[in-house]
Amino acid sequence: AQRVTQPEKLLSVFKGAPVELKCNYSYSGSPELFWYVQYSRQRLQLLLRHISRESIKGFTADLNKGETSFHLKKPFAQEEDSAMYYCALSGSGTGGFKTIFGAGTRLFVKA
Amino acid sequence: NAGVTQTPKFQVLKTGQSMTLQCAQDMNHEYMSWYRQDPGMGLRLIHYSVGAGITDQGEVPNGYNVSRSTTEDFPLRLLSAAPSQTSVYFCASSRQINEKLFFGSGTQLSVL
Fold first, then answer.
1. Distance between CA atoms of A41 and A45, rounded to whole angstroms?
2. C-alpha–C-alpha distance, residues A85 and A106, integer Å
3. Which residues of chain A have pLDDT under 70?
4. What is the rounded end-to-end Cα distance, in angstroms, of chain A?
5. Which strand ranges, in their side-by-side order, compose the sheet holding B64-66?
6. What is the mean pLDDT of residues B6-26?
7. Contact at 8 Å (CB) between A90 and B97?
8. Cβ A99–B50 below 8 Å, yes or no?
9. What are the angstrom distances between the C-alpha of A13 and each of A23, A45, A84, A87?
10. If we measure between CA atoms, which residue out of A78, A4, A79 comes closest to residue A36?
């Protein structure tokens, strides 16, 4: 069965500190993995996807198939990074092809 | 370009009432889906559609119905509202399955 696990509900770091938001997944095939972000009073939006292998707003994420992880990283956090972050997986399974999300991690970046 | 439009933005229902949440997209996307967002549980998939006339159940489909008679519209029906359906509902669409999702602004629903 498909599953996405984000073990941290809340992550608080100081401005300028490195940040890592963890995401682990369970999937039997080759998944498409994404990070979505929801800033205060804004719509959910795509931050990055693993297939594009690009850096957005200084964030990167590497797919580790051995550890079934897709952690989101940024070397120097900024206050404007404070938001809710969701890891998502698209794949086929029982009942068809769908995109499911983890429980989310709220990131607070303190001045 | 409107993108994904959801109505209403807010709704209060009494237990047992029915209602329909509307979702429309103007991007000619094949894939549309409904999620509910609850604290500590993230986004959970209710129903989805891979094209007009095709719908399927997600993770939490009970108590909800959908239909997809056109590419543009994907309404979500609550048949008999229950307090457990108090949540924020998001509609999303993508050009094809497993591509980037575009989200609506959400509907905050309270069932008393």
1. 12
2. 6
3. 93-96
4. 41
5. B4-7, B19-25, B76-78, B64-66
6. 97
7. yes
8. no
9. 18, 22, 14, 19
10. A4
Q: What is the pLDDT of residues B34-88, one digit of tens each?
A: 999 998 889 999 999 999 999 999 999 999 999 999 999 999 999 999 999 999 9
Q: Do A45 and B103 touch (CB under 8 A)?
A: yes
Rounded to an integer, what distance in angstroms lies between the CA atom of residue B11 and that of residue A16? Answer: 41
Q: Are B18 and B79 in contact (CB under 8 A)?
A: yes
What CA–CA distance (Å, rounded) separates B107 from B91? 9
* Whole-angstrom Cα Rg for chain B: 13
Say if residue B107 is exposed, middle or buried (CB neighbours under 10 Å; 0-12, 13-18, 19+): buried
The answer to whether the CB atoms of A100 and B101 lie below 8 A apart is no
